[in-house]
Design a protein that fits this description.
The protein is an all-alpha fold and 151 residues long. Helices cover 69% and strands 0% of the residues. It has five helices and no strands. The longest helix is centred in the N-terminal third of the chain and has 43 residues. It is elongated and about 80 Å long.
Length: 151
């Protein structure tokens, strides 16, 4: 049974509309994923206590980090320092990661995460220092906000 030209045109327009809707959904999903990634990066910069830096200094530091990303030793050191438990703000759930040293991790695990942290006490001291810096930043930020609201 042959369909009329009008029916075929309508079906074609419906298919185009479905494809446009799917494309819009894909773009929205990609935008949401990128936004999430940027928020996470900003959170890490905050956790590292670098928000107080001049934007040009922060950008320069990030560029030098990017330039050293090809150096395996620098990447290894970064992973080791980043393996310390991340500080939490008061009232936030703790997401401290516990790592143990293993003499020879399987290759797949070595690719995903560092296999050794220097020591538990060093990690705890590092986390305490980051927590103190984070709390100081939070206190300063709260004071700035109160000043802005009162003026």
């Amino acid at each position: 049974m042959a369909r009329s030209l009008a029916e075929r045109l309508r079906a074609h327009e419906q298919q185009k509309a479905r494809l446009a809707e799917q494309e819009a959904k894909l773009k929205a999903d990609e935008r949401k994923a990128r936004t999430r990634q940027l928020i996470q990066a900003g959170g890490l910069i905050d956790k590292a206590g670098l928000l107080e830096l001049d934007p040009n200094a922060l950008y320069g530091a990030l560029l030098s980090l990017r330039d050293g990303a090809g150096d395996p030793e620098q990447v290894r050191n970064g992973r080791r320092w980043g393996a310390a438990p991340l500080p939490t703000r008061p009232g936030w759930p703790s997401k401290a990661r516990k790592r143990s040293c293993s003499p020879s991790p399987p290759p797949s695990a070595a690719m995903r995460r560092p296999h050794c942290v220097a020591s538990a006490s060093a990690s705890n001291e590092h986390a305490a220092a980051i927590n103190a810096a984070s709390d100081t930043w939070l206190a300063r930020r709260t004071l700035q906000t109160k000043r802005r609201r009162s003026s």
